[in-house]
Amino acid sequence: MQFDDQRRWLVKILKEEGIRDSKLIEAISLVPRHEFVPVMMREYSYRNQPLAIGEDQTISQPLIIAIMIQLLQIQETNSVLEIGTGSGYQTAILSALTKEVYTIERLEGLAIRAKATLKKLNYLNIHYKIGDGTKGWLKAYPPRKEFDRIIVSAASPLIPSSLVEQLAENGRLVIPVGEKTFQRLILVEKRNGEIKTSYHGDCTFVPLIGDEGWQSQ
Fold first, then answer.
1. pTM for this prediction
2. Catalytic residue positions?
3. What is the pLDDT, as a whole number, of residue 215?
């Protein structure tokens, strides 16, 4: 196929950068990233870099996606909440790793395109919501109060309290936290009702807009 060699090259780069989760590597090797980027950008699909997808949003660098998902330590039985559907590429990887993915996108146009692409590619274990991701899965269908894993694909000034509340016992949440131009990647773990946070490198994401994130301009 046209992009198979490029995808294998990307997987090789990710392994060299420390991605060791074999199921994650397999998922990345199978998900067609070129289907999730604009047609005029497809020749760059498997470069280890972010790409513009419209509406001032990006599809994240594959390495940072892999780092964040590896930190989650996803199990097949986990429920996963994704904040920021974006192009749907990360959603597809999550879909391949676990039984149920719940994904929220603030921008309706992106959400509609991502859902269409994911359904076309037969990623069917996904529930969708358009709205404020900082509030989590409130007033959404199917109803769910907590999640085993939560991943946030945009930068917040603080860790949203609503997301911490929706994190299940023994759950893990990964989120970039900091200023709009520079953040730290934070892992949140909930054990015996207590919250523990740890730092896992610097990063740069688009702002997380919402009641518990950055306010829209």
1. 0.96
2. 60
3. 86
